[in-house]
C-alpha cells in the first residue's frame, strides 16, 4: 500500500433533527502519510433564531479533539454542499483548503438558500479548490458529482485497505429507501430528473467498483449499526 493512500475513515454524528430521528453527520479520512481530510462540518455552533428542527450534539471540533486533533490539523475540507447542516463549521478550519464543485460554489454566491452559513463557506478564493465533475482527490479518495439535491452536490468514494470501497452518498441519497433505480416521480421537487440521474449514477458505481458499504446521508437506522468515532473503518 502506498503511503499516500487512505488508511482510516471515521464517522461522527454531530447533531440531529430530533422530530424526524435524522442524524447530522460528518466524516474524517486519514492517509498513510498523516493527512487529515474532513468531509463536511455539520451544524453551526449557534443555530439561527427559530431553527428549532435541528439540535447540536458533540460538535466536530470536540470529536476531533477526542482523537488528538485540533482544527489546525485539518488539511482539507471536502464540502459536499453548503446547506446549513453540512457547512456550519467550515470557518473553524483556518489551515484547510476547501474542495467544492465549481457549479455549486458559483450557484451559492447568489442563492439565498446558503445565506445562513455564508460566513462559513465564503472563504478567500486562494483557500478554495473548485472542481468540475468526478475528481480523484488523492489515491483512494474520489469525489463523485451528484447534482439533484442541489446543483453541484458531491458524494465521496473511499477505498480502504481492509474494509474495501465505501460510498458516502451524502444527500444525493439521504435514505436507504431512495436508493432504487429510476426513482419514481413524486413531484415534490423541480429537480426530480437530476436526483434520479444521480441515484442511477451511484447505483452503477456500486456495481462497477464493487462497493461493499454504502453509507446514506441521514439514515438513522443504518447509522446506529455503523462504527462511530472513536472507532473507525480501515
Ligand atoms: Zn443534509
Note down, in words, how this protein is organized.
The protein has 5 helices and 12 strands. The protein has 234 residues and is α/β, with parallel strands linked by helices. The protein has one domain (6-225): Ribonuclease Z/Hydroxyacylglutathione hydrolase-like (Metallo-beta-lactamase, Chain A), CATH 3.60.15.10. The longest helix has 17 residues, at 192-208. It is globular, with a radius of gyration of 16 Å. The chain starts with 5 loop residues before the first strand and ends in a 9-residue tail after the last helix. The mean pLDDT is 95. It has a 7-stranded mixed beta sheet. Strands 8-9-10-11-12 form a 5-stranded mixed beta sheet, covered by helices on one side. The chain binds zinc ion.
List the helices and strands and how they pair.
Layout: E1 6-17, E2 22-31, E3 36-39, E4 55-56, H1 60-65, E5 76-78, E6 97-101, H2 102-108, H3 118-121, E7 128-131, E8 135-138, E9 141-145, E10 154-160, E11 164-170, H4 192-208, E12 213-216, H5 220-225
Parallel strand pairs: 3-5, 5-6, 6-7, 11-12
Antiparallel strand pairs: 1-2, 1-4, 2-3, 8-9, 9-10, 10-11
This protein binds zinc ion.
Zinc ion binds next to loops.
